[in-house]
Amino acid sequence: MSLEQIELLETWGLKLFFVAIFLLIGLAIQDVLKRGNVPKFGRYVVWLVLFLGCSGFIAKGIIEALWEGSGVG
């Protein structure tokens, strides 16, 4: 394997790792909310905050990819 292929594999592996971490965090939060008998409004707030955190992380990745593709970064 060439150095470029190894770097690409590492990049995709890191991205998949983050997806798995976000999934596990979501499952853990769902379990805590169910066991804690949290009201509906509280659940919506928790999921909104989790969604905004994930979407910010995804937006950061897209912006970095666009900047690198255009030669800015």
Characteristic terms for this protein:
single chain; mainly alpha; 0% strand; elongated; DUF2788; DUF2788 domain-containing protein
**SSE topology string:** HH
Class by alpha and beta content: mainly alpha
Radius of gyration: 17 Å
Number of helices: 2
How many strands, which pairing sense, and closed or not: the largest β-sheet?
A: none
Total strands:
0
User: How would the global form be characterised?
Assistant: elongated
Strand content: under 5%
First CA to last CA: what distance? 26 Å
Q: Which range best describes the helical content: under 10%, 10-25%, 25-40%, 40-55%, 55-70% or over 70%? A: over 70%
Could you name the ranges where pLDDT drops below 50 across 5 or more consecutive residues? none
Average residue pLDDT: 89
Could you write a compact summary of the structure shown?
With 73 residues, the protein is mainly α.
Give an account of the 3D structure.
It is a single chain. By secondary structure, the chain is mostly helical. It has helices at about 5-35, 40-70. Helices cover about 90% and strands about 0% of the residues. The model has no long low-confidence stretch (mean pLDDT about 90). It is elongated. α1 (about 5-35) packs antiparallel against α2 (about 40-70). The two termini are about 25 Å apart.
Structural topology:
Elements (H helix, E strand, L loop, with lengths): L2 H33 L4 H31 L3
